[in-house]
Structure formats: structure tokens, C-alpha cells
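Form 12-C: Joint structure prediction
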Amino acid sequence: MTEVSPLAPEQLYRRVAVEELPFETTADVADVDEVPGQPRALEAIRFGVGIKNSGYNIYALGPAGTGKHSVVQRLLSQRASQQSTPSDWVYLYNFTDTQRPRAVELPPGRARELRHDMLRLVEDLQSAIPSAFESDEYRTRVQEIEQEFKDRREEAIAAIQRDARTQGVDLLRTPSGFAFAPTREGEVLSPDEYEHMPEPEKKRVALAMEGFEGKLRAVIRQIPLWRQESREKLKTLNRDVAMAATGHEIGALLEKYAAYEALIAHLNAVQEDVIENIDDFRQQEEGASPLLALTGSHSSALRRYGVNVIVEQADHQGAPVLYEDHPTYQNLVGHLEHVAMMGALVTDFSLIRGGALHRANGGYLILDAHKLLMQPFAWDGLKRALRSRELRIESVERMLSLVSTASLEPEPIPLDVKVVLLGDRLLYYLLCEHDPEFADLFKVAADFEDSMDRTPDNHRLYAHFIATMARQAELRPYRREAVARVIEHAARLVGDAHKMSTHLRSIADLLRESDYYAGEAGAACVEREHVCLAISGQVHRASRIEERVRESIRRGTTLIDTDGLAVGQVNGLSVLQLGGYSFGAPHRITARVRLGEGEVIDIEREVELGGPIHSKGVLILSGWLGSRYAADVALSLSATLVFEQSYGEVEGDSASSAELYALLSALADAPIKQSLAVTGSINQQGQVQAIGGVNEKIEGYFDVCRMRGLSGHQGVLIPAANMQHLMLREDVIEAVQQGKFLIFPVETVDQGIALLTGMAAGETDAEGQFSDGSVNARVQTRLRELAQLRQAFAEHAKDKETP
Amino acid sequence: MNPPCNAYTVQRCAVAVDVSMHSRPVVEVAALLAAKWAVELRGFYVEDINLLHLAQYPTAREVDWSATGATMQLTYQRMERLLRVHAGRVRETVVTVTAQRHVPATLHVARGRVVDELVAASRSVDLLVLGRGGEGATRLGSVAHRVAVTAACSVMLVGIALGVGRSILVIYDDATVSDRVLCAAAHCATAVGLSMQVLIPCSEESQFAARRDRARACLFGTQMMVSYHASTGSEILAVLCAVPQALVVVAGAASRYCEAALTQHRGSLLVIR
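Section 2 - Result
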């Protein structure tokens, strides 16, 4: 077995060689367009943007803060600027089917012009039409028609009256009609006179009156027809006058928009409608009734000649690139607004509101996947639009059949848009798994990396990127030492000495905070020390809980020994993550053994505080224990393992090596050095495997030891595979340099137990026996003793059962 | 308001009112004048005795005007009831319109022959306002004609939809009441703010100048814009036909133009006595 030596200081931190950075400050460095470390994602986005077929929408997946949005926005903008500007879209009143407003496509910029023209047309008509109808000529013609009707009626009645008088009968107007009465010298006979009239005369008069009544009835029945004729004449007159009043204004527009067939049809329909509803314009002048004013019916009547501009590209060049920050169903696919009128909610074509898809039509729409899925019906609405390739504005209530009141069904607008969803990986994989339509509609995955390799070229690329960000944020120039420190911190962020974080938000935060400290110090450039200050500031602001944990250890509330020896007891290391900050802390792990039936009891699991991965680690170590030390005898122990003073859930297998060391110590009765702490998982071969958070774990134990005073014997056993991940703090490195703290890279359990106990682990000879006095030999001996003891107990029990 | 000249003043103003749709504008004109002159307005409604006579015939019937021309039996009780309904509607019209002008008003309901009752009422007032009558308004109604000719006071006949008129046209001839006609026209013109034109029938320039000077003297102090025109008799007849928008003011029975105005003019008319 090879002896393990502690790591040298230079193995604990991989510095950036400043000579790799060919500049003094970032002021000398050119800007860079490329986001570092994302070639795969960029390629995917370029592919997705370039391919025209439907369904090739893009899902940009990766953790938040990796610059997905800015990368996507920039690439799309570059592409969009080379594309043609898409059409304007307007909704117009449908005069033949009022429930289905017409969608009309216009060249970019014409929608606003059309709206202005139609507004002016209505204004012009509002003055031209009343003027035409106010003219003396018109009034005269109206009066002539009315007079004609009245004359006709009066003449018919007068004719009857004249005839009646010749027969000695007069026509009288009663409160509700007409009556005939006999007269003498122009006066109606009194009842007495009538009574004394000779009977033949009376009969003659009665007969005459009956005849005239018949004639009068015939005239009265004719009157509605005459009135109808009169109304028709008036209508024809109004139409002629209206045609004359509107012809010029609408004619000018027909000429202007002659190239647009849909508009020609609309303008002709407008003219017909204006003529049919000429009173809407005349009311302006004559004063609308109070009821009309209250209901707003008059203004809404004229509104139908307006233009509802849904999409207008007058101020844009190229295809639109839109980010919708609040992707509700309505904000995406548009909606119908309503206004309250006389206690009811009403709508019309002018209240149709376009959504982000309308504005992005012909271009690109960027959406946050999480926000989109959080909004009811928004995801379904987006998919429906992409699938059908048309935008159909439909209220959610109608869509769900919650209401069946009459509403609008605007004509759909053809949709040609590329949607880019931004989201995390989990969401992407969940959508792939559970939404069958997702794969059809979002065929392009742009997978953003969390990290990138640390190579001299990438260091320089990163420096360019830092320079760009600093300039964009108007920060001071960064000295190259400071840039190097930022890169080193980027490596620490991913916990890997050979990688750098691509989490741009964290780097941008660090740059701004470093600049702040440089400003406080009155420096013209940001120096390495300012970056260090910013990093320690971040740690200090987030480390309240960490300090409370350490204080608990200092005060003896949490029992952690950092010197001396103890059997079946070892310092394990764990990482706690709170918010965006993680830190390491030691935990006491103990093991106890007694005679049993071969079970290793993980107390954490028994009380359901151990996660599945932790339980897996314990099962692996018990398997390894049996196969190595008791392959030919029954494993006859009962062992218990516990994380002392742990009251929360324990997860991960990084403590499995520590648990095994505690168990071996207990079996071998070999005390373990409490000055050392352990991390690493084991496999069934007895190898120690890499774990996560190695830097935090080492620093966590170092802080506890330093608090009590560094003895020079204290240190941490880490998996050898984790050496490449070491990016430790400066103070830890200094302590190692001064020989006050030790870090051992361990490959096997034997190496670990030897370091912890100070005894030889022991190797097997040709007969499979461990060397005498070694830890392994003592473990094997103890297990055999336990097996014999168990066998003896079994035989004794059998004897007692036999009569 | 002081009258522009002393030859004509109105202290008692009356309006003849019925239930026709044209009655309300007549009441409005009367209320306007009463308000301007600050006098009480008396409403007169006559229940036509002829209708009551008719209703007493055993075979009395009426042909319904408002609906289908159906024939309905008439009785005295029904006729009385209908007349009471009419009186109620007339009262409502008078009260509503005069209240808007803050004019004190009364309504007198009489029963008899319409012309006789209105002529009787004209004896107790200075001005009687009534509608021209007749649906077509082209011809003066017979009742209006007879009242205008026989009333004891001045009579204003209001044309449908014309109100007082847009201007005032005075026929200033050699009638004995011609100064009174002029003053009455000025009185109305001042009250409703209309311009005034005076037609002077004459055959010679000197005659025109003399009458014009007399008219000017009569209107002295009124500060009104008045234009004077010399006209022959035939010209006056032509003008009467051509200006239905004007309120024609003419002397009553004493003037030879009165009958012409009554038969030819289709607008509002003021016959002065």
C-alpha cells in the first residue's frame, strides 16, 4: 500500500498566469460579441433561427444567469435586422357580419395612415353631411315631400267634406276621429231638430252618412300607403344628398387605396353604410337625445368607421424581436376588451387588442418558459397558435364555454413567428416527457453550459468578456491581476480548478461589487485586492448561519473533537446550502458493534432522516465489510451508525467512508485521530470516490480548527479524485504552507484507516490473512470471534430445545 | 318692459288651445310674448257643442282616425268623457309651457260653438293667440279665419313650425288704426328681437314719403332698425305669398289688405284692432 503524503500548497489552488493575459487593464481589450463557453448553444440557436420549416422553435435551456436571454436577444436582433419588415394588420368593422371583424393586411406603415385617413373621413363627413342636409334646397325638397303628403290627405278628406255638404251633411273632427252630422245653414242640427226631421229625410241622411263613412274609411286606409310613399321619396332624397356629400371624400380614399382590394371593398361598404345610417351624422348637428348621450350609442355608431390597428410597424426596420415579460393568455394571443354601458359589458371591433404574438408576427418572440407555464391557458394558447399557424382571438370564457353570450369572432390572422423559450433544464425534460406536442413544436434545444474549460485561450476570451461587461456597465478598467482573480473565482464557483463558471450574472455582480470597493478606495482601476474584498464581502454578508454553527462548536454545544483519539468516532464533513451560499461543517459520526445477525443499522435511515443516496452508501459499506472480512463466515455483528447531533435530513454518500472508518475503528478497537476529518464515498471495492463541495468541506473544518488553534496535526482526508477540484481560500493555503494544516488525498479505505489510526491497515498474504497487528487483522479477528460466539449461542439454544 | 310707442300695449293676453299637435307651439309663442310683456296668460279651451249634439243622435258614429278607420258608436257620455280628457291634456300643456317661462296662467273651459266662444273671450283681452289651423297649413282654418275677422281684440295666428316668424312685415296703409298696427309690430319686434320692414302701399313718391315720415314719427325713440318700402297693391299680394317665414302685421277689418293677408299669407299673422 502506498503511503499518502499531504498535498503541497500549489496543489490546492490553480492560479491564472498573468502573463497569459496580454494587457495591462481591460481598457486595452476589445469588446467581444460572443458569450464565452456556449458554442453548442450558439450553434443551435443559429440553426433554429435559420431553418424555415414549422415546428423549429427554440428552447434555450440552462440555469438562470448564464446569459441565455442576452445571447438569444442579440442573435435574433442580428438576424432580424437583415429581414424584411413584416406587414401591418388592422381590424375593420364587418358590415355584412358584424360578429366577425375583418382582418386586413397592409404594407408596413400604412395602418397608421389608414387610421388617420378614416378618422379624417368621419370628421369631414360629420361636417359635410349636416351641411348638405342643412341647406335650404334640401329643406325645401323635404317640405315639398311632406306638403305633398299632407295635401294629398287633406284634399282627400276635403273632397269627402265637399261631397257631404252637397248632401246636407258635414264632416266633423271628433276627439278621436271623424263623424258626419246633418247640418242646416252650416250648423249641426240639434238633437231635437234631428228628432223632428221627416222620416224619409232622416233615412236619406243616414244613407248618405253611411256612404261617406265608407269613403272616409277608404281614404284613411290609403293614408299609410301615402305616408310610406312619402317616406320612400324622403329616403331617396336623403340617399341622393348623402351620396353627393360623401362621394368626394370617399372617392379620394378609393383612389388612394386602389391597390388594396380588401380596402376598396371596405370603403364601398362604408359609403353604403353611411348612406343607410345618415341620421348618425345628422344627430351631431341636431343634438342627440339624452338617452343616446347616456349610452354613448352615437359615438359608438360612428366608431364602426374607424380602424383598429393591431400591428403597426411604422417605427421598425426589419423583423421584430419581442420579449414578453408577462406572458398571460391575453398578453400572448390578444383579447377582447369590454366597456360598461347601461349596466352591461359590451364590445366591438375597436376593442380587439393584439397580443405579443401579433406584434412579433413575421419575427421572433422570446418567452420565459416558467412564467409562461405559470399562466393559466397561456401554454395551450401558444401551442394552438403555433400549430394552426394563425392567430385567433378568443376570450378564455368562451374557450371554456363558461359564457355563451354573443361576442365577436375576429377573423384569424396568419401567423409566422419563431418562438424562443428560455427555461431551466428540468422544465425542458419534463415538457419532453409529459407534453407530446412539445417535441413537435420546439424541435431545437439550445443547451447552455454551466462551465467551460480553463485553457489559456479561454482565459483570454473570458478577459475580453469581463472587459465588455465592465464597459457596458460603465465600470472602471480591470487590472489584469484583478481579471485573473475574477477567473479564479469563476473556477471556484463551479468547484473545479479546471473549469470556469459561465454563470454570467454572478460574474457581473462580482465586477460591479469590485468596482464599488475600488471606488471606495479611490482607485482608478479595479485591482486584485478589490476583487478579493468583493468576494469576502459576499461571503460575509451570507455567512451568519455558518458563524452560528461554528459558535455552537466553540461553545461545546455541538460536540466536535479536533485533537485526541477515540474509538468508533470520526469527524465527517458535510455541506449546507442556504439560498445561494454554501458552507462546510464537521459532524461527529460514531459506530457501535455487538453480536448480531450481520446487520449494519443506519440510525438516520431508521428514523427516516437519511435520504436514499445516504442509505445506499451505508448498504455499500456493509456489503464491502462482509465480503472483505467475513467472506467465509457468517457476518455476526450488529452495528449502529449515527450522525451525532444531527436533527435534519442527511443526504448524499460523501460520508460513507467516514462511517466505514468509524465502524472499522469500533470493530478493531483502534482509536481514530480526532484531529482529522474525512470526506469521500466508497464503492464495493474499497475505493474512495469523489464527492461534491470539497472546497467548502475543507474550509469548514479548517475554520473550526483555526478557531481552536491550529496544531499542525489537523487536516482533512479527501478523495484523491477531488484534487482537480481544489480552489481553496488563501488562508487555508497559507496554513498548509506553514505546515499547520494537512490535506491528504486518499484513494482507498486502507490508506484512510491507516492515516486515521496511525496503524498499518494490513495487507493479505497468500492465504488471505491480514498481517498481524494491523487494523484489518483486528477487524477480521473480531468478526470471526463474533461468528463463533453466535454459533455457540445457536448450538446452546438447539440443545435446550432438544428434549 | 315699456312699450315702444303708446298706441298699442297688451295688458291681457289669451291663447286658444286644443289637443292637436300644433297647439303646443302656439302656447309657446303666447307664453313667450306674455313673458316679455310681463302679463298673465289666459288659456281658452272650447268644448264644441256640435260634437255633443252629434253624440246625442241615436245613430251617431265616428270613423277612427288614429288606427284602421274602424267605425265606432258615439254616445253623449263618451263624448263628454273624451272632452274631459282633452281638457286635462290642454291644462297640462298650458301649465307646463307657462311654467318654463315663469308666466302666471289660467285655463278657462267653455262649452259652445268654437268661434262664438273665442270671439266672446276676445272681448276680455287685448290679444288672442291661436293656431292657423288646418293640417297642411297652406290654407287658413275656417275657425281661425272667422275668429280673425270677427274678434273684438287683436288676433295673432301662429303658423305651424314658424313660431312668431323670422322677421316682421308691417302693412302700413291709410287705415284708421295704422299707427296702432305699427306700434303693435314694434311691440312684438322688441319683445322677440326681430327686424321690421314696413310696406307702404302708395302710388306716388310724395305719398310714400309722407307716410314714411308719419311712421318714423310714430316709432320715434324705439331705436329699432326699420326699413320702409313703397309697394303697389299687387306687389303686396305677391310679397304675402312669398314670405311665409315673416310675421305679417296688418290692420283688422278696416284694412283692405286684411282679407288678402288672411287668404294669401301662409305664415304667422297679427291682425290689429
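Section 3 - Comments
Residues 72 and 120 of chain B are 34 Å apart (CA to CA). Chain B has two domains: 1-162, 164-273.
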